[in-house]
DNA sequence: TTGAAAGCGATACCAA
DNA sequence: TTGGTATCGCTTTCAA
């Protein structure tokens, strides 16, 4: 074995230092290095030795190898979640941020796994390769099979955040059907009977839009009100086209999927001379700042996501007691905020 | 060693299957399992054996252990990037998505590391523990020290995306100073002389807002125009307060940081009876859909982020040739889109 | 065509 | 107080 000389200048591509290198430089064994660097309380190491080890580690720029460590330990504290595959709003961003912070406090490392390529069970297998201690899956896309794969690979907790519970996994149920229901109910109560529901043309949003539509349907079931699906892309001319044939649709209200689509559509309607809310009532969802700034002020369905702290606590509980019966929580608070557009 | 009996029902908490288990069940050696499952072309395995191995792997629900694999291999194909610590706009979301997809095509695994706790060099050390083959760092917050730590730990490429290059790392320079400069220039050219610049009160945005402000300053340096800093939180009443004292500020133009703050402020100004653009010109940045829908239509600075494909290619190049001189690319295309508000 | 065994880096048990 | 060493799961060289 060649001893690589320590170069004073830092341009030589040295090989990655290991704990053995630290041990060599400090003149102690690898065991001692491990004890010192991990502050092992089981063993008492003399102060001079500690110093020498720390010194050597610093000098070499030693950083422990997570893979080796968790291989040896037989477990990691990695919480994996697939990265969202579509632009997320401020609500969700904040939620993720909070969650990461809260899990960080509990000494977990959160890792968002790049969403590309594998789908369904293959995705679950890819995640399982990392042997995360817990997996958080937003949206649907994970089936009972996937849950089984993850658990078999050592995941002590699998939590889904989505419209439906999945066998074997804890579920934070985000009932988007209820969002639609609230919106539909509100419009119906305001005397509207011919209700349009916007379905975004952008892919990946069906998970949310389909249940929202269904919620509106349920809200007016058994009444004389009708529900009409409206496909709308998030583009000005798509909205203009829809607005152009608006009067032929004979609608007196529209649930616009969310505030952004609502703004897009409302603008197009106004440009077309359709009076809001007189001729057509408009309601969005998400309660973005945006809506408050529009004229008329946009009515919306305010959504309350679970706090990151709560979810972090759930994860921690589940990790400690993997055998427990899967928890099921209804977490999407949906309340109508009535402003001027409806 | 206790042989765990195969249970027909799947509720028993079996231990995680390893390649040795697969080998045992298939009646072959672990080497053979590895050959088969990795489609090793160096060795030819008989068809019946292959089948038996695949069968056994499927039956046990075997998933390889990434840590063990990369430990043995001495490298991984993980590209790490810290997860953004603040709500990101659609621009950045799309960029990340593209990037993940493009790197996925090149067989890298993208992992967003949860931003909590460690800062500065400690963060770099935490990332280094995962031994990523490449690290992508948006924003500032990584210094030359951090780069050195990462490289010493085997990262073959470190790429920063931010306002300033960092020694030793490739840099995708996002020149926010230029954004401010374009905006300032535009306002000046439109005859405005008393220019306000919005600085968001929200933390974490200084990285962008400071250089944008500086850009405006530079644009009017040596002229008779003045620049006034305006602190604004992303809340209605903050905007209302600012609007209430607007006339006392004597400004005839404002660069509102971005389109969202611009919308917020413009609405407040209009509510206060300040005519836009007659009395005060307003320009935002980011060219969101939003701005097109406002009345007057919002002038903005359109930003062009690098395509994910380009960045993926840069990463791949850098990984293949770690010794190469750090590349430096100006990637933030900034062009004024003049609409009606200025 | 298949198997035995070394070794990646870190940890923790048992001795000394 | 410190060191030697087996071990985690996997890949790969060398032999058989």
From TrEMBL, chains A, B:
It comes from the Bacteria. The keyword DNA-binding applies. Pfam families: LacI, Peripla_BP_3. InterPro entries: HTH_LacI (IPR000843), LacI/GalR-like_sensor (IPR046335), Lambda_DNA-bd_dom_sf (IPR010982), Peripla_BP_I (IPR028082). The lineage of its organism: Bacteria, Bacillati, Actinomycetota, Actinomycetes, Kitasatosporales. This is LacI family DNA-binding transcriptional regulator. Residues 17-73 form the HTH lacI-type domain. Gene3D superfamilies: 3.40.50.2300, lambda repressor-like DNA-binding domains. One of its GO terms (molecular function) is DNA binding. SMART domains: HTH_LACI. Keywords: DNA-binding, Transcription, Transcription regulation.
């Amino acid at each position: 074995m060649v001893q690589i000389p320590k170069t004073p200048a830092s341009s030589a591509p040295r090989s990655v230092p290991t704990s053995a290198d630290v041990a060599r430089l400090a003149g102690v064994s690898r065991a001692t290095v491990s004890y010192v660097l991990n502050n092992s309380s089981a063993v008492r190491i003399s102060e001079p030795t500690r110093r020498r080890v720390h010194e050597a580690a610093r000098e070499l720029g030693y950083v422990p190898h997570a893979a080796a460590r968790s291989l040896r330990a037989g477990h990691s504290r990695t919480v994996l979640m697939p990265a969202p595959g579509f632009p997320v709003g401020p609500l969700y961003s904040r939620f993720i941020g909070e969650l990461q912070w809260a899990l960080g406090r509990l000494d977990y490392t959160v890792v968002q796994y790049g969403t590309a390529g594998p789908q369904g069970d293959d995705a679950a297998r890819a995640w399982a390769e990392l042997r995360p201690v817990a997996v958080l899956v937003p949206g649907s896309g994970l089936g009972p099979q996937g849950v089984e794969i993850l658990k078999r690979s050592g995941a002590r907790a699998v939590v889904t955040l989505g419209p439906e519970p999945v066998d074997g996994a804890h579920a934070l149920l985000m009932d988007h059907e209820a969002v639609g229901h609230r919106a539909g109910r509100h419009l119906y109560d305001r005397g509207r009977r011919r209700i349009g529901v916007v379905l975004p043309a952008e892919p990946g949003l069906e998970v949310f839009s389909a249940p929202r539509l269904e919620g509106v349907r349920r809200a007016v079931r058994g009444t004389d009100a009708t529900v009409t699906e409206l496909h709308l892309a998030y583009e000005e001319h798509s909205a203009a086209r829809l607005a152009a044939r608006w009067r032929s649709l004979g609608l007196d209200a529209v649930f616009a999927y969310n505030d952004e689509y609502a703004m897009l559509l409302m603008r197009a309607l106004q440009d077309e001379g359709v009076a809001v809310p007189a001729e057509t009532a408009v309601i969005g969802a998400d309660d973005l700042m945006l809506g408050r700034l529009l004229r008329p002020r946009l009515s919306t369905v305010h959504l309350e996501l679970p706090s990151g702290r709560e979810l972090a606590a759930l994860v921690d509980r589940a990790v400690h007691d993997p055998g427990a019966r899967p928890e099921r929580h209804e977490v999407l608070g949906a309340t109508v905020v009535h402003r001027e557009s409806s």
